[in-house]
């Protein structure tokens, strides 16, 4: 069956669901108080962060391998350029290397292309990039005999420095989740390291494994520390600091607590339908952040208690995903545009490596937005248009403004953390597509 043969027409959906009256939507805004680092200070702050790292064991002129590769990190080109500058100012020779596990199709060219799409190149960073998929076996864990790998170029360097954002993970909860430690263990382990870690995590949770493997890597390799960021609710850089190897796990755990406090979420715990205008690897490693959707598809980790969303309709895949639609399995319906953008091979490689193959399952694809919304509303139970609880969001990362149905507008009026920006109006379509733009612009 071709992709086009999998698309269900709007006519078929309407015939099956009836001539359904749709809810009206207004606009709500979450009230957030943030204090981001000014853009013109980012590079300087990154250079300053290098001052706190542990370089005592190396000499002037030695090589420092800087690992880069996580999608969605705000101001990443500035942070990388500043880190490179800071290393040079201390008298060392930096080089960059892709630290992204199996992403980019687990190929050198794919990882270089992915770095470039993140705005990181030899030109923007003023630094050489050394890319390989080769790894060195660093050692094995004492109790479970798990092999631990490191990018071959990084392992040969005199010091190693990962750059990453600290944030809640989408598949597990622990003292450290997404951040410097995970990049050391999985990102810098390339495809073999990522695959090994994810396989073992199915029996031995990431929450226990990541700290133990991180400790081994810090002990066996010249890890000087890392450059960590924490982003606020608007995804702006709010913390940018160096974390020395001597305080690696402890400080990352503290930063994770702050990241949880600042993490943007949906403002309602019980929802009938949520429409996400886009999903993607630059939005979340899971395509759609499971902390927002409440849908963890790993069989060995419990789903969050909230929110509870009865139906999710996902409309498109971000260009920066390069066809990797990991997380599409969280949706109940998808738009034809998303289906047609999926690179099945990249998606499957990523989900096999992560050990969460349900994230690659492709939901029913519909021809139009009207068809997606009607199908979703027709499968949540009996609700009048005035009662149904519907949100439309740009994606799981941009949640400041949301389209909301009348029932949610009424609740928002009584809450100090929400503001009604626009009253409810009928949903407009043009050839079946939403006329109203995404609630938050990401251009």
Please provide a written account of the structure:
The chain is built from 15 helices and 18 strands. It is α/β, with parallel strands linked by helices and 443 residues long. It has 2 domains: 199 residues, no CATH class; 224 residues, Rossmann fold (3-Layer(aba) Sandwich), CATH 3.40.50.11440. Strands 1-13-12-11-10-14-15-2-16 form a 9-stranded mixed beta sheet. It has a 5-stranded mixed beta sheet with strand order 4-3-7-8-9, with helices on both faces. A two-stranded antiparallel sheet has the order 5-6. Strand 10, helix 11 and strand 11 form a beta-alpha-beta unit. Helix 1 runs parallel beside helix 14, helix 2 packs parallel to helix 3 and helix 7 packs across helix 9. The chain is globular, with a radius of gyration of 22 Å.
Write the layout of secondary structure elements.
Elements (H helix, E strand, L loop, with lengths): L6 E2 L1 H8 L7 E6 L8 H12 L12 E6 L7 H14 L3 E6 L9 H10 L4 H4 L9 E6 L6 E5 H4 L3 E7 L14 H8 L2 H12 L4 H15 L4 E7 L5 E8 L3 H15 L7 E7 L13 H4 L14 E7 L18 E3 H6 L2 H11 L10 E2 L2 H9 L12 E4 L7 E5 H8 L4 E8 L3 E2 L2 E2 L9
Parallel strand pairs: 1-13, 3-4, 3-7, 7-8, 10-11, 10-14, 11-12, 12-13
Antiparallel strand pairs: 2-15, 2-16, 5-6, 8-9, 14-15, 17-18
Low-confidence stretches: none
Please describe the biggest sheet, giving its number of strands, its sense, and whether it closes into a barrel: 9 strands, mixed
- Rough outline: globular
Q: What percentage of the residues does DSSP assign to strands (E)? A: 15-25%
Percent of residues in helices comes to: 25-40%
Distance between the termini: 35 Å
């Amino acid at each position: 069956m071709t992709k086009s043969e999998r698309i269900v027409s709007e006519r078929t959906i309407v015939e099956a669901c009836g001539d359904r009256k749709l809810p009206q939507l207004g606009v709500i805004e979450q009230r957030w108080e943030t204090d981001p680092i000014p853009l013109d200070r980012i590079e300087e702050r990154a250079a300053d962060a290098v001052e706190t790292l542990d370089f005592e064991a190396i000499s002037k002129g030695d090589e420092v391998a800087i690992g880069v590769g996580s999608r969605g990190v705000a101001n990443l080109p500035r942070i990388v350029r500043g880190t490179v500058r800071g290393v040079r100012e201390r008298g060392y020779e930096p080089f960059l290397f892709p630290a992204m596990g199996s992403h980019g199709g687990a190929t050198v060219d794919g990882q270089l292309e992915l770095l470039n799409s993140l705005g990181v190149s030899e030109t923007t960073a003023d630094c050489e990039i050394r890319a390989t998929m080769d790894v060195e076996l660093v050692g094995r864990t004492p109790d479970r005999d798990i092999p631990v790998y490191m990018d071959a170029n990084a392992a040969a360097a005199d010091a190693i420095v990962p750059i990453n954002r600290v944030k809640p993970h989408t598949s597990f909860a622990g003292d450290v989740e997404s951040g410097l430690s995970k990049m050391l263990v999985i990102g810098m382990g390339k495809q073999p390291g990522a695959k090994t870690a994810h396989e073992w995590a199915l029996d031995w949770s990431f929450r226990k494994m990541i700290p133990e493997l991180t400790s081994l890597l810090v002990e066996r390799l010249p890890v000087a520390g890392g450059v960590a960021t924490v982003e606020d609710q608007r995804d702006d850089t709010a913390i940018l600091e160096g974390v020395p190897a001597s305080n690696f796990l402890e400080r990352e755990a503290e930063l994770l607590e702050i990241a949880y406090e600042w993490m943007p979420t949906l403002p309602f715990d019980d929802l009938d339908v949520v429409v996400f205008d886009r999903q993607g690897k630059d939005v979340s490693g899971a395509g759609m952040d499971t902390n927002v959707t409440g849908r963890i598809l790993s069989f060995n980790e419990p789903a969050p208690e909230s929110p509870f969303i009865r139906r999710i309709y996902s409309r498109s895949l971000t260009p920066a995903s390069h066809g990797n639609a990991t997380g599409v399995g969280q949706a109940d319906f998808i738009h034809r545009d998303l289906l047609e953008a999926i690179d099945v091979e990249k998606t499957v490689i990523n989900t096999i490596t992560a050990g969460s193959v349900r994230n690659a399952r492709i939901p029913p694809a519909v021809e139009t937005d009207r068809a997606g919304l009607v199908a979703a509303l027709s499968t949540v139970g009996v609700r009048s248009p005035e009662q149904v609880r519907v949100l439309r969001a740009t994606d799981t990362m941009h949640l400041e403004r949301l389209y909301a149905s009348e029932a949610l507008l009424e609740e928002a009026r009584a809450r100090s953390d929400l503001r009604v920006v626009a009253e409810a109006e009928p949903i407009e379509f043009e050839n079946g597509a939403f006329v109203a733009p995404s609630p938050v612009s990401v251009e």
